Amino acid sequence: MTTKKKKKNSADNSFAAIEKKIDKKATDAHEMKPSEAVSSEGGTMSESLIMVRNLEKHYGELHALDGVSMNIEKGEVVVIIGPSGSGKSTFLRSLNLLEVPTSGEIIFEGVNMLDKHVDINVHRQKMGMVFQHFNLFPHMTIMKNVTIGPMKLLKVSKEEAEKRATELLKRVGLADRANAYPSQLSGGQKQRIAIVRALCMQPDVMLFDEPTSALDPEMVGEVLEVMKSLAKEGMTMAVVTHEMGFAKEVADRVVFMADGKILETGSPEEIFSNPKTEKAKQFLASVLS
Ligand SMILES: Nc1ncnc2c1ncn2[C@@H]1O[C@H](COP(=O)(O)OP(=O)(O)OP(=O)(O)O)[C@@H](O)[C@H]1O
Ligand SMILES: [Mg+2]
Q: Residue 88: CB within 6 Å of ligand 1?
């Protein structure tokens, strides 16, 4: 991996420090560290956090994913770009089985996500997802929105969930809005809350699907800043975005998709300065112009 900026010493109120402070009891029961992953042969093996092999998704006649294979390493930031309809969202949503792939393999932390015997909910909880539209519950306060998941799914106590939530809200500059309702917040604030909600579930990877596309331009920066700080602290991230500045600055790897396939993958420099396929050249010319 070519990371240059991961695992910095963090200030006490960093996302990483907050991670350390949380009570691990609730997760230890079902969490298997990648280094402890057990292969199908029964031995241990070191492996990528996520390994995707030959993923296919058909919607009737439409071939939305056409043999997609990709590894995502722990601590890596992968930015996925490509034209509309190229399968970026389908790919991201397939990782945590919001879309069920037609065929292929997704191995996450050593677990075959498509194995019918696997309790998918347990593993899906370790993948935080942030969408273009925030999907906050409108009738619940911000505090309730971000603590209901840990309390219901991780069986974390209300006190513990609120403690963690308060720390994370502080980190994104929204501690004073804990008792507000989503309708009382701006789009940028709602998206920062959506990120906090995902982080409250103590994920091992964060998936972002165009998190800033629905925002007014003046609110894009505040959300990207939160994402950058997460990336710097070593969070594994897969990000679909049209924010090429973010990709250049933060991505370890850029993946270009078109027609349901990965056409190019490389460092931001490689993809942005020297795209090889005609489709990537055309796409980049359109978004960078
Ligand atoms: N639920 C669905 N039913 C049928 N077709 C779908 C469904 N979801 C996506 N598709 C189709 O699959 C293809 C890939 O869609 P996808 O949303 O993954 O593209 P995308 O790269 O995320 O595009 P965009 O940049 O517009 O978000 C498109 O042709 C889309 O119309
Ligand atoms: Mg999409």
A: yes
